[in-house]
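Why this split exists: single-chain examples teach little about how molecules sit against one another. For that reason, every record in the complexes split bundles all components of an assembly together and asks for one structure covering all of them. Below is a record exactly as it appears in the raw files.
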Amino acid sequence: MAAAPEEKQTESLERPLLAIDSLTKVYPGGTRALDGVSFAIRRPEVIAVIGSSGAGKSTLIRCINRLVEPTSGSILLGATDIVRLGAKDLRQARRRIGMIFQEFNLVERLTVMENILSGRLGSVSFLASFTRRYPAADVANAYAMLDRVGLAGLHDSRADALSGGQRQRVGIGRALMQNPDLLLVDEPTASLDPKTARQIMRLIRALAEEGATPALVNIHDVALAQGFADRIIGLKAGKVAFDGPVAELTPAVLTDIYGAEDWSQTIRRESEEETSA
Amino acid sequence: MVQRPRADKAAVSAGVQKRYPEVWRRHTPRETVTNWLWVAAVALACAWSVSALDIEWAFFKDAHEQAIDLGQRMWPPRWSYLPSIVAPLVETIHIATLGTAIAVVFSIPLAFLAARNTTANGFTWALGRALLVASRSVNTVIWGLLFVAIPGPGPLAGIAAVAARSVGFLAKLVAEAIEEADRGPIEAIEATGAGTFQTYVVAILPQVMPVLIGTTVYRWDINVRESSVLGFVGAGGIGIYLYASINQFAWQQVLVALLVILVVVIASEAVSAWIRERIS
């Protein structure tokens, strides 16, 4: 773990940042949500995971930090195989993985500051989290983070008093307070209006670039995925149906992932919009 | 039967009115009979109780006269008795408050033990539930009797009795709130690498806080009422004075004690309602 920062710069050509091999998840009911998924992330990039509902996108992301227990396969984060970790080591590994949720999943009755600082829970003692006395450096970073995600001055507001876009900004801040080696993002914009959705995607992309953090983003909106991702992974019935750069996403590929449909209005033409801000 | 939909479709397209039933009943005849059987069973149970209890109906004949007589003996209240029951009255409130406070401290860990989603395993869950039931199934006055036998008579026994009964009450309602807590924030806090107890404190406790405060205040309000009779068994408070006055047939004193208890109960209920209205 101590080697994490160097890893990002030097090992990009040798060991992948994240390597998933033959990942399979069979739910107790017998549903095979993931069926031998393999891919690797070799450099900090934003990867959009697309696919129809039930294709296994959410299961994939939740297997990586083991909110869902994988049935078989391996998930190498740097040199650590997350699938094989015991409870204590898993908590250590989870500190290195930030997660952003569709429903934001903030603790509604706590303040923005408490929610942001909860990203540091893996690094503070029980007593410190009980009394909400975080180290001074964490507090300073939290203020800076609030500033960065555009919530300066709202630190004492309760999370349930914020708008959807603001809540997602808190969610993003909480994940980044972990200083993660990997960002898992589960449908970050599905509960937001189109304009806010674009702002949130732009923010996630910018922060991932600033921290040189690879981000795996589940997303329903294909146009948004093309606008903000470097690479697309298409899941179909628990298998990887497409894995390649955004430019290679053609109507034929979308038909393969989602089924037949007129895709001419969905695929972005590069010149039409700015890519990122 | 298989042909039905096609036949209907043909009928509608031909402009012929569909036939609908003209009579509709909420219950089938069978359900109606079952419902009446239940009513009959309850009536039978009541009849059995009345016959088994051997009630002396003759007492009802002059009940109104007895009531008026008691009222006359109570009136006017002997206000000179008031100063001597102020101290025990305050003691009653203290017993309720301290008993509730102790109960809160013990009920939080017990609630986490008794909630399915936070207990460690089947054994700890069963243990938690057993403690809940044990606490709740014994009346405060019975707890009072038990504790009078242990630390001896006085307010300490009363505090212990109130706490023993309230722990189960609070823990049961908080445990239910824990089981209903939103999964999302819990998942998010687990994903940060937080430990189990950190997750409880940061993601679950804030969610159940309104229930914890609300039921605590409500329980305190109940405890003020229950503490007023704890003196009957020697567990402190105003009850001993009320009991003594009844035994001496000092009905004018009894009325003063009852009026004072009424005022305190109304006040505590008002406080409790006011606080519960405020939490969100």
